[in-house]
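Reviewer 2 asked us to include a model.

Predict the structure of this chain.
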Amino acid sequence: MRVGRVIARPFVGASGAFERTANRKDFATPPPEPTLCDRATAAGRDVIGIGKIGDIFSGRGVGEVRKGPDDAALIDLSIEALRSAPDGAFVFANFVEFDSLYGHRRDVAGYARALEPFDAR
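Predicted model (C-alpha cells):
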C-alpha cells in the first residue's frame, strides 16, 4: 500500500483525559528516490538531522541525529549544530511541536505565538 510513515504514539491516562508520552516511535518507508540528504551525503557533505529528520527519512542520508524533548531543546540543538558543523554541512531540523500542537489543530494564533520566541532565538 506504500504507506510512507506510521507514527506510534503511546498515551497514558483515562478515557477523555489521555496525555501523550515521550515514547513515540516512527516507522517510515525509505524514500523511493534520492533525497536532498542522500545527495548531500553522496557529495561528501555532513548531514545533521535535528528532531525527527532521521525517522522521517528512515535514517537514509542522515549521518548524525540530534534529538530533544521539545522545540526549545531542538532550537538549542540546531543553533549548536549551525555553530559547530563543518563548512558545507547540511543541518536539517524538524520542530515537532509546531506541527503537533498548532498545525494539526489548525491553531493559527498559537502557531504565530510559538514563532515569536523561535524568531527571537
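The helical segments are 36-42, 53-56, 71-84, 96-103, 108-120. The chain has five helices and seven strands. We have added this to the supplementary material.
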